Amino acid sequence: MLSRPLRLAALLAPLLSLSWLPANAGEGTFGWVYTLDLQPKGTLEFEQRLQVNQGQARGHYDLWQARTELEYGVSEDFQVAGYLNTSRVSANQNYGDGSTSGWLVPSSAGSSPYSRTRLDGVSLEGIWRFTNPVIDPVGVGFYLEATTGAVKDELESRLLLQSNFLDDRLVVAANLQLSAEKVKFNAPDIGKESMADLLLGVSYRVANNWTAGMEYRFHNDFEGYAFNKQTQRAHFIGPNMHYATKDWWVTAAWRYQLKGQSQCWAPGEAECSNGRVWDSHSRNEVMFKFGRPL
Amino acid sequence: MNWTPASALLMLPMAALVAPTLAHARINIGTEEAQQRLFPGQKFTPSPVFLTEVQRDKMRELSSVREPFKSERVWRSANGGWFIIDEVLGKHEMVKYALAILPNGSIKGIEVMEYVESYGYEVADDAWRQQFVGKTIDAPLKLKQDIQNLSGATLSCKHLTDGVKRLMVMYELALKNAK
Question: Could you give the ipTM of this predicted complex?
Fold first, then answer.
């Protein structure tokens, strides 16, 4: 088994391999909410994301998910991006029934400690902007992302809405997200799932280079690709902070799963306890994002 | 590892690893240089303007710019023109620019004095700035109406256009009939 520093290095390897690049990107003001701030035509940006989910019903559950991304502005209102997705999971008896379970933990783990670092797969995304919130009262866009790899195959879509106020100091954004995924990490068992989320965000420019805000997520998981039967519902809320200069930017965000507001249905009660849902979720979720124009 | 805010901070060195970057361009022009670009050979006299609350409200209403105007940044040229420096919001920093108004009330030109952003340096190009030349208070001075946008610099284009509109309103209200 790799030592902790080596495991961390493996997780961040995609980032380090690209760190020589002189960077620029569509800037991620929020942790999870997408805005309509796209890459200008003909420009490229490098972006590294790292999400850390920690804490489930009991025991321990740490999930680190890294996404290394290149974004390119194809036209003024269309950008594409490619991702390399990696992860590290470490869990032990983290569900309420004492089992070692959750996202990226195979059922063969039983109630034993489990950890694994892996290359999850790759993603391609496109964002189309129909109206620009800097000029129009409401900015409207569409986001489509396809993911494939050892962990899952997924098609994710988002309706992006954004309005700016107070000389563009105040940004209000909403994403309606619909996705379908074929979950493969527990092979030979294959999961057919779908998800419908609403993400809301507000961000204010508190000083030059700095914005601060809040984000909310209303999450709904379903069995089947077509939202056949609901399995989970949860609410998350938390703050974000963003700093940007002309050469790089960084965003940090935290969201907390509200207790007592979550519900589980099928497939198992263990995925829901103490008023919260688990699986890929945790009590605390933290996002770090770093971007550099190239 | 138990979650604590401190453990999250451990990831900050990640940013430091990749922080060194190639320096991108920046625009930084001094007041005298901007004056000579807009009114070559002219001499200037500082002419601070006193604005009433009613005038400031009118400037905000007609331009939508909320940033306070620094009224000491006004000069009069020897030929009776006006040279005004103002700032508007850029993507990350303030964009500092100068507006030159001829004695007949038409725009002689604008000059971008400070611009420190990732993209959009084309706002300082002649081609974009020339759109303002010759316009008066009667022009819409509105992005995507009589001023064309630049890809990748929409926010700066909008705020600069609104800023010029604000200064033209100020000229009409407070400078036009000044002795």
Answer: 0.80
